[in-house]
Amino acid sequence: MSIWRAERKEILVLGAALALILCIGTAAKKVPPPSDESFDLVIANGRVMDPESGLDAVRNVGISGGKIRVISEGTLNGKTILDAKGLVVAPGFIDLHEHGQEARNYQFQAHDGVTTSLELEAGTDDVDKWYAAREGKALINFGVSIGHIPVRMHLMHDPGPFLATGDAARRAATAEELASMSELMEKGFQRGALAEGMGVNYTPAASHAEIVEMFRIAAKYGASVHVHLRYAGMKEPMTGLTGLEEVIAAAAATGAPLHVVHITSMGLKDTPQLIDMVAGAGKRGLDVTTECYPYTAGSTALQSAIFDPGWQENMGITFKDVQWAETGERLTAETFEKYRKQGGIVVIHSIPEEAARTAVANPMIMIASDGMPITGAKVHPRGQGTFSRVLGHYVREEKALDLMTALRKMTLMPAQRLEKRAPVFRDKGRIRVGADADITVFDANRVIDKATYEEPLQYSEGIQFVLVNGVPVVKDGQLVEGVLPGRAARAPVNQ
Questions:
Q1: Are 151 and 269 within one domain?
Q2: pLDDT digits (tens, 9 = 90+) for 265-292
Q3: Can you give the pTM of this predicted structure?
Q4: 103 assigned to some structural domain
Q5: pLDDT digits (tens, 9 = 90+) for 475-492
Q6: What DSSP character marks residue 249?
């Protein structure tokens, strides 16, 4: 009997110790911060969704100094309280592909939930100048690549205001020009360019050797190359598949990470085959990613090399499929020639709905707008409504993908694409303690795009709060006046 009592006593002691350890662990996990601690801002009672950890639960988020300081089940004190009951609290959306890097574009993007807007396809030829022009003047965060197109245009004195229309599009580079091009690209990386931008379709005279050289430089700096493929469409041998083969080969040969922009407008009805190629390259050890926008039309400048003779066969479309953005009219042979000489933006109705849906639903493919500068009343709606369209149309209405997957494609995945080159992105695209307080709060039952091809300058609905570095830029669905908290998203600068 005495032996049993001793054993029972040991068991009770051991059990009590184990219970104490469990209690301490549970307390450390759940105990809220001291009640007298006050944060700059608290997002209260929202459904916090973090694609990195998988958290999907009602929590309170405490923010101070532009950072997330605590995520708690307990009540938090704050100088400002935003009530997010019934709303989703998500990382701010990161747009890898936005050409409109001006104040008006940023307003539309903020209304669409974007907290970081990046020009990575076209890029710039002067990284310092580009960042300086926006420092202290931006509603949302901003960033840029060193761009092969603008560098080529600069060296060849191309007259195009944005895309190449002269020698940069139609003349091979000399050995001296190629050497200068390489120097300018390297300088861009040394000055903190996030990536390398490349639009081979817009510089068709650039040789395969020139493209490989540009990839080699990107590899040297651990930078992803964001490429508009040399070819789009279905006419052999100049197909989207051929264009993809070129840059996958360049990536394999040089070791540069590859990011293929707007895969649907490159592949058209062959989009599934291009997606399979990207996936296959990844399975075989190459660092290859891609993106799409949720629309069945593309957009570009009519005067660009894309519309050189043969474009109808290449893209499988004709004049009636091309829309002059300024008036909304569909083109004829006569108006095509007139507007091509004038120069301006067109909307190209060429992407099958099934191709768009397939890409949006694929968990491997990021979401990016390819938004255009707002120079008038008419422009493609993608720069104003991409992210809300995915959430409202494809997630809620079509049920093509679940909400967490959609958020991952527009937050965490873009951040991961850039964070090796630019460590600043390790603290973006996440809802976690220590991350930047770039946060989008929206009504999952109401969020929707309002921008259309006919009336593109309309704000999305259902995005209730948007925080950039802890500062509200959208509150109760309205822009906040007089705030410019956007900061440079930049790779390290070599002094």
A1: yes
A2: 999 999 999 999 999 999 999 999 999 9
A3: 0.91
A4: yes
A5: 999 999 999 999 999 999
A6: H
